[in-house]
Amino acid sequence: MKNIYIPEPVVIENIIKETPDVKTFTLRLKSREERNGFKFYPGQFIEVSVFGYGEIPVSISSNPDNRENFDITVRAVGYVSNALYLKKEGDEIGIRGPFGNHFPFEEIKEDNILIIGGGIGLAPLRSLILYLLNRKEKSGRCIILYGAKTPEDRLYKRQLSAWREDPAVEFLETVDKADNGWKGNVGVVTTLLSRVKIDPGKTWAFICGPPVMIKSTVNELLRMGLKEEKVIFTLERYMKCGIGKCGHCAIGNKYVCIDGPVFNCKELGNTVPHAIT
After folding, report:
1. Which domain-ending residue is among 55, 75, 99?
2. Does the pLDDT of residue 196 top 80, yes or no?
3. Contact residues for 216 (Cβ-Cβ < 8 A; gap 6+)
């Protein structure tokens, strides 16, 4: 029986520098047996170990259909993430997981999909987007709204361009602060909501970003008439151990790492304001 406390070794196959402080790491489990058994869904996370430094919870940001390797996107903001940021291609780190629940894509059916990401919050949503676009004939419209602090802080720049050109996607992006070369929208991501037409009764919204962005987006979507059970967000920032032992991620009677990290407004009830502040 696999020990969930012991990390499995992975090799860093590729590194992409997304922004000055964010990198995407492509990881590959060393064991063929482990690769065959590793299966995740959009929204799930892993615990990433940098040996000698510690571990951090990180959402998987790649398409689950790719079984040979997978991506994580990490910002260098703390002791462990800074150590990871300095790793090179070919280096080894460890992982535990995947853990947690996932975005409820099975329930969407023919409804429309509204995906709203802010900053590095696009990372777990990228996994969902890639998964859904592989099955775009099974759902309705796909609308992606993305906001970043500056043009330089935008993640997955090549992929953003591909989504903009994809006839199956309605893609809009904005930045909080523009430079002289930026010709796009300027403002917080919620300002883009007025630019898209949605049917509130037939739309699922998936949100990830900074707490203030999640809070304002959730409030606006509910004001627009979306059902509480169809307003979905992920709260990975609360997590630590990943298995419900440390209590760090408790919100009311729920543990983010066990019951989440994906929640909808209805299931959190009156704990929503606390959860997204």
Report:
1. 99
2. yes
3. 188, 190
